Amino acid sequence: MKLVYNMRKTDEPDPAVVLVLKGCVDSDTAPDFGKVMDLLLERHRCPLVVDMTDVAYISSAGWREFVNKTQGIIEKQLNIRIVGMQSTVRDVFELIGLDHVFPTHNTVDAACEALRTSTAR
Q1: In the chain, which residue ranges form alpha helices assigned H by DSSP?
Q2: 12 pLDDT above the threshold of 70
Q3: How far apart are alpha carbons 1 and 43 in whole angstroms?
Q4: Which bin fits 77, alpha (ψ -120 to 50), beta or left (φ > 0)?
Q5: Each residue's pLDDT tens digit, 17-38
Q6: Which of 1, 101, 113, 115 shows its CA 20 to 30 Å from the CA of 82?
């Protein structure tokens, strides 16, 4: 299964980029995922919401790309939220400790509300 993605910017007073992923992030698609994340890190300074609602599976290669991008996210002090992980994806996310690095939410709206609240302080 291939990885499909799209990006959009929210219209709120404090905009965020929403990256919607669909499919699987495996050894074939992990490089594409990495390129998309690089593009976001280069071009956007606003918060990022990664919607994984329709991601069925992430292989070790996919998680490696995600972890490799974590350093750049932290260095640029970007606020990132992860949304809608299926239980099998969430289990590995928690197992590798990313739940201590990135806040998670059930919906994009909840993530955007949390971002608004965190930037209002």
Answers
A1: 30-43, 60-75, 87-95, 108-119
A2: no
A3: 28
A4: left
A5: 899 999 999 999 999 999 988 8
A6: 1
Residue 27 backbone dihedrals phi, psi, to 5 degrees: -65, -25
Task: Give which of 6, 102, 86 is closest to 52, Cα–Cα.
Answer: 86
Q: Tell if the pTM clears 0.90, that is, is over it.
A: no
> By the 8 A CB rule, do 12 and 112 touch?
yes
Q: What is the rounded end-to-end Cα distance, in angstroms, of the chain? A: 42
**Residue 87 burial class via C-beta count within 10 angstroms: exposed 0-12, middle 13-18, buried 19 and up:** exposed
The DSSP call for residue 48 is: E
- Token pair in block for residue 101: 């690095």
CB 3 within 8 A of CB 23: yes
Q: Which residue has the tokens 């300074």?
A: 45
Order of strands, sheet of 80-83, starting from the edge strand that comes earlier in the sequence: 4-9, 17-25, 48-58, 80-83, 104-105
